[in-house]
Amino acid sequence: MTKRALITGVNGMDGSHLADLLLEKDYAVFGMERRASAKNRRNTAHLEGKITFLSADLTDQNSLMRCLKEADPHEVYNLGAMSFVGESWNTPENTGDVNGLGCLRILEALREYNRPVKFYQASTSEMFGKMIENPASESTPFYPRSPYGVAKLYAHWITKNYRESHDMFNVCGILFNHESERRGIEFVTRKITDGVARIHLGLQDKIMLGNLEAKRDWGYAPDYVKAMWLTLQQDTPDDYVIATGETRSIREFLDAAFDCIDIEDWSEYVGQDPRFFRPAEVDVLRGDSSKAREVLGWKPETSFDDMVHRMVENDITLLRGNR
Ligand code: NAP
Ligand code: GDD
C-alpha cells in the first residue's frame, strides 16, 4: 500500500527536504502551501510534477479540512510557521495565530476527519529559551523568551493534550537549530554564508549582524527530517529532543564560513547594527538527544564544518549563476 503524507509549509526549508525524503521512500506526498499573488517555490521547483501542491492556510480552518480530505493522509507533518524569531516581536498576534492556533486548527480538523492519522508537530528549542538546564532534554522545564517561543509552547502542549484527551497519535519533535542550503536568507547562518560568498565575489564589503556572542546547537536539516519520519514510525507516540549536543557562537560560525574563502581574520568584513539585536535574547542552546538516539536509532550524520562548507559553496555557485 502506498503511504500518503501531508506536509504543511512544504515550500520551507524543512518541508522541501522532508518531501525529498518521503518521495525516496515511495510516499505519495501532498504539500500544503499558502498562495499569495505569486508562487514561492524556490525550494520546491524540483518537486513540481512529483508531489501534489494544495492551497491552504493555517489560519483558515475550512482550508485545512479540505486539504485533509484531498490528501487522505496516513501522516501529517505540521512544519508551517512564522518561523523567524526576530520578526515575532513585530507581529506577535499573527505569530500566535499561525504557530499556536494553527496547530490547534489542524488537530480539530483531524478530530473531525476521524481517521487514524499520525500527526507530527515541529516544536522548537526556543521553548527552552533561558535554558534552566544545559543541555536541555525532554524533561527540562520550558522558559520561552520570544512571542515565537511562547506560541510554539502552546502548540507543543495542545498537541500533547489532544494525545492524552482524545487518544490521538500525536508527537512533538523538539528541534534544535538546523540549517541547509535552502535556509531563508534572514536567518543568521544563511545571512553569513550568502555574505561570505558575496565578499568572495567582490559583490559586498561587509556583513552587518547583531549579537555575535549567542550560541546555538546547529545541525543539518536533511538529518533532522529523517528524525521527523522516524518519530512517526514508532508504535507509541512520544516526544523527542533532536540536537547535536554541540554548541557554537555566531563568532565560531563566522570563523568556519570565512575559512571557506581562506580568510582567517574577518573583523574588517563584519559590522554590528542595533537593528539586528533582539528585545530578549536566547544566549545559549544545547540539546541532549540521548532518547532519540536510543529509541529512534537517530544521530546527526553531517558535521558542522561540512554543513558550513556546503552552504558557502552553494551560495557562491548561486551568485555566479545570477551574474
Ligand atoms: P521555513 O523555511 O520558514 O518554512 C515555514 C513554512 O511555513 C514556509 O513555507 C511558509 O510559507 C509556511 N507558512 C507560514 N505561514 C503560514 C500559514 N499561515 N499557513 C501555511 N503555511 C505557512 O521554516 P523551517 O526552518 O523549514 O522550519 C519548519 C518548522 O520547524 C517550522 O514550524 C519551524 O518553526 C520549526 N523549527 C525549525 C527549526 C530550524 O532550526 N529550522 C528549529 C525548530 C523548529 P511561505 O513560504 O508562504 O512563507
Ligand atoms: N537572524 C539574525 N540576523 N540573527 C542574528 C543576527 C542577524 O543579523 N546577528 C546575530 N544573530 C543571532 C540572533 O540574535 C540569535 O541569537 C542567533 O543569531 C540565531 O538567530 P536565527 O538564525 O534568526 O535563529 P533562531 O535561533 O532565532 O531561530 C531558529 O532556530 C529556532 C530553534 O532554536 C529558527 O529556525 C526558529 O524557527 C527555530 O525554532
Task: Describe this structure as you would to a colleague.
This protein is of the alpha/beta class. The protein is 39% helix and 15% strand. The N and C termini lie far apart (47 Å). The relative contact order is 0.13. The structure holds NADP nicotinamide-adenine-dinucleotide phosphate and guanosine-5'-diphosphate-alpha-D-mannose.
Short description, anyone?
This protein has nine helices and 13 strands. By secondary structure, it is an alpha/beta fold.
Q: Can you list the strand order of the major beta sheet?
A: 3-2-1-4-5-6-11
Major sheet summary line: 7 strands, parallel
Terminal-residue CA separation: 47 Å
Which structural class is indicated by helix and strand composition? Answer: alpha/beta
Radius of gyration: 19 Å
| Relative helix content | 25-40%
Bound small molecules, deduplicated: NADP nicotinamide-adenine-dinucleotide phosphate, guanosine-5'-diphosphate-alpha-D-mannose
